[in-house]
Amino acid sequence: MDTYFISHGSPMLAIEEDMPARSFLKSWQQRIHQHKPSSILVISAHWETADPTVNVVDHNSTIYDFYGFPKPLYQLKYHAPGAPRLAKRVKELLTSSGFQRVKEDKTRGLDHGSWIPLHLMYPEADIPVCQLSVQTQLDGTHHYNMGKALAPLRDEGVLIIGSGSATHNLSALGRENTPVPSWAEDFDTWLKECLLAGRHEDINHYEEKAPRAKMVHPWPEHFYPLHVALGAAGEEANAELVHHSWREGALSYASYRFKTAP
């Protein structure tokens, strides 16, 4: 089972018909990942905790963790089953790999970093879904190592998705169809070159290695899901850019498949 990083961008992805990233996600089962997973683990940028945490629920509620958007967004529902067995397995794998404190949340549903892409990818909402949080006070290596610990899930029919954003400086976004600023394009290009060349250590230390890293990611929560997905694929994984588009000038929707080595 390959792993993936998806740039989920704006919540408008759910309803704005002309977004290229929306068409990409709607074609997911036909063009990208034809094999139906037994369950899905999503590492979402929109769940930040001090310690790695999984949601252990039987039924996922839909969390509307965004404000000021059109009313139709708040009418969408994505009631995918919970994946309590997967959550327990994630906790077991992390603790056995040296992550001493892994917590359970028995009330949390799916935030928009999970349900918005999933409702386009798997609109039937019939696959159990578990979420795993990110730790913004820690670094890329921590999240890469979390992914390494979760690698056995690939052989257990679990689809691992990191959901974040290749670039994410919301205060620097522009109007639609404005040119991509050089600081965003340079980082986006650096990321692609690093991933395609297998330079995982550069990705883990992106703050020092990448151009304009702090400008592109003032906070790291939208980048760390990539580290988890990359780590789960293994050191010999081959990266493939499966979608690329820009919106609002500086928001990259670059998404990657990490094909595991045979």
Structural notes for this entry:
A six-stranded mixed sheet has the order 5-2-6-1-10-7, sandwiched between helices. It starts with a strand and ends with a strand. By secondary structure, it is α/β, with parallel strands linked by helices. The longest helix has 16 residues. A hairpin with a 3-residue loop joins β8 and β9. The protein contains eleven helices and ten strands.
**Quaternary organisation:** single chain
- Average pLDDT confidence is 96
* CATH architecture group name: 3-Layer(aba) Sandwich
Order of helices and strands: EHHEEHHEHEHEHHHHHEEEE
Radius of gyration: 17 Å
CATH topology: Protocatechuate 4,5-dioxygenase, Chain B
Count the helices. How many?
11
Number of E-type strands? 10
Q: Note the beta-strand portion.
A: 15-25%
**Order of strands across the biggest sheet?**
5-2-6-1-10-7
Rough shape?
globular
Low-confidence parts: none
The CATH class designation is Alpha Beta
Please summarize what this structure is:
This protein is of the alpha/beta class and 262 residues long. The chain has eleven helices and ten strands.
Q: What attributes characterize this protein structure?
A:
single chain, 262 residues, alpha/beta, Protocatechuate 4,5-dioxygenase, Chain B, 6-stranded mixed sheet, two-stranded parallel ribbon, 11 helices, 10 strands, Extradiol ring-cleavage dioxygenase class III enzyme subunit B domain-containing protein, zinc ion binding
